[in-house]
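chain below, 269 aa
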Amino acid sequence: MVGGVGGVPGGRPPGLALRAFQCWMTVYRRIWRSSIWSSVLGPLFYLGALGLGLGTLVNRNGTANLGGVSYLAFVAPAILASGAMNAAMSEASYPVFGSVKWNKIYIAAQASPLRPGDIFRGHLMFMTMRIAMNAALVTMYMWAFGATQSAWAVLGWPAATLTGLAFAAPIAAWAVTLKIETSFAYLFRFGMMPLMLFSGTFFPVSQLPGFLRLLAYVTPLWQGVDLCRMLSLGDVDLPRALIHVTYLAALSGFGIWAGVRTYRRRLYV
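prediction:
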């Protein structure tokens, strides 16, 4: 066989990123029970408490500021998008750092034919699968609670998955460069929490002061929340939806581009 192994030029077998993904699937088959609360029960209780509990009080005092829809219908797609963000941050932070410093999965992978880019892409595929699983559950809960008003709501699942990927790829690219894990506290405290509170998740962005409203409009979570909400309510503004998709796809692409480079710098020997 000329020029490689198994007929592959340069001696590199295809599908190495898939092999890295299969490694993470093997790990997940052993630990999936630990994710039941966060992935299955957490969104269910969250949607019930906010949409039905708090929502009863909000509806009683009028929903004009919500566009005339119930609070459940307003908040459910935002929980879908913000849940995807939370899953992305969880999967792309400590697991990436731990794969270098604690369980050393990445270090073991260096002894295989996997390149740093393969390791990154394989792990990102697993992160995307986990985000999609969580988003699928929330989408089903929304249908069960009667929180959707349009068949377009089914597209909220890929929209939320794209929202999660827009967070997961850049965060993983950053997390692999860290030497100590304390930086994640800043990510969750000054990143996730403000985004949850000021990206139109629990109340309309129009209620914010002007300067905060403009800031909210450029955040990836608002892009995802607005996209999922318009799909769930059936009030789809196609140009605005395309802007959201382009924004989230561009951020995802940037994260993938950056991740290949940061993984190479950290793992290349």
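Strands lie at 4-5, 8-9. The radius of gyration is 20 Å.
thats it, cya
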